[in-house]
Design a protein that fits this description.
about 675 residues; five-stranded antiparallel sheet; about 15% strand
Amino acid sequence: MATPPQPPNRGGDPGTGSGISRTGLGQSSQSDGGSGSHSGLGTGVGILPPTGTHGAYDGGTGSHGTGTHGGGTGSHGTGTHGSGTGTHGTGTGTGTHGTGTGTRGTGTGTHGTGSVTGTRPPLTRVDQTAISLLDLGGGDRPPDLTTVGGLKVQHLVLMSSTLLVLLVVVANGVASVVSTQRQFELNAAASTTRFQDQARELGQTLSNTLSLTVSSALRDNSFGPLTEVVASLVKANPNVVRVQAFNSELESVADSDKAAKLGTPLGRPATKSWVISTFNGDPTFEYQEPVNYGSESGPGVLVLSYSAAELQRQLATLDAEKQAAVREVTLRTAALAVGFLVVALVVAMVLARRISKPIDQLTHSAMQLSNGDLSVRVDPAKGGGREVVALGYVFNFMATRLTLLLDGARQRAALERDIQVARQVQETIQPTRDPFVIGNLRVAGVCVSADACGGDWWTRLQLDGGRIALGLGDVTGHGLSTSLIAASATSGFVSALRLREASEQKADVLMRGLNQTMFDLARGQHQMSGTLALIDSQTGAFEIAAGGHPPAYVFNRLTGRLSSLTARGSLLGASSEGTFPVLRGSLKEGDIVVWYTDGVTEARNAEGRLYETQRLTQALQRYANLPCEQLRDAVLADVNEFSAGRSQQDDMTVIVAEFGADARFATAQPG
């Protein structure tokens, strides 16, 4: 419904233009003009600002009247911004910056004459250096890199390279030392084995030589000559340090050691064996050989002890050689370590600089980017490795994409502002949620858009003779384009309805006019389903015409009867020629009528099942005792409960009308 233009607030008479506000039907401010600048409230489709001086919001010809800010002598009259009586008015006075007479705005032009379809002016590109990435929702400011702790990449490369060289050199040195020690241990073990084998061979030879003498002495118990034999054997062979003979009771009967006490037990079995022992504090090898001399108690035993001094000398020599070799390996390893470290440090410094330089450049460029300089680009340095080169290409690509994203964000912001204005316009031209009462009829309706703007619309208009017109439409799709078409169709429908004589206010005539308007607006790109009902609020007599719209449901509170009002007609906007048969009838006391769009019955739940008309009629009967506005809200609540877990996919509109004497005094009842 159009709103009368407000009186001009800066001079001039109200104009005669019919320009349209930024996104469709709307009211301008009437400021700064001659005869009613910005004064028209038209019915055209001024979707976007046209070109021309001060052409925003209304379009048309002429800028603020034919007299630009005044028709006197000089700018704004001779008394520019005068401080006397009638400043910016029609009076005269003495101006602060001059004297003379002049009125601010005495032209007679109109700002916006007729319906104008504007074109969007090009977006002004903001200087990139003034753009902040915070436009995308970042923090308060870019991070301060001086507070970032830790080592630089080049330092990390130096440390890691040095540590790696140290580990390699130390590991090599340890391996060399261990290998040298192992070699000397093997040599010592070989010398020991060789010495033992020689002693064993000597013991075997001597035992074979003495066995006859020892067995005869043991058999004859003649131990004196045996003692002399073993003593002479020690004197003759310097490697043999002691010779002992034991009888079958394993008691000593002859010993080359004069200090030894005869009769001392052997202390171990009389078997052939080889053991390590000591004699006079020196290490010895003892070779034990059994001697069978025919005793029933068992064999005797011959024990030969050999000096290990030669072996000790050899082992000492090997140990000294080992220590010298270990020292040599250690010194050589240390020298290699120093040399390798020097070379590694030089190479690491060169590599670290080669790697860290492009990274530093990337960091610097990234900080410039975070500060809003979207023109910054990097030259992918080849010295940083394939990953750094790839990172440079990615950075440049990201900066380019970010520029495009910011441009898109600005355009989206502008579009969102347009959408917000369109939504405000759409909400302005549609009735409020409050119930409307006329005669015996009470009406309440609401549109719930799936997006910021919707393609559903509804209107109510009081006509002469106590009649009311209820209109409902659903443009295919939803969003800004459909909302603009819906708003334009609504405004055109309301204007056409108001301009027609009472005799021409008929459902089929109005539907044909709405169909032609829709066809002209959408140009075949959109269609619309719609319903128009003309109801006598006193008698309940109605006539309904529809175009491809679901039928309304009627439920009588008194009888509990449910029926539908089906009016079939062509889809609006499909062609300029459409037929719209009229359904006539009369509402009865207690009747409740529900009109709706298919967004209600086609709502889906989480399983994908439709709400459908059966559940709608069940909700109508369940909440029939409520006033129309509460019944409307209860139906929408039932749809939302059914669709819980799934977002709204289409616009939903519900209109509820209740007829009867009590409709005028309906109040909320327990439901």
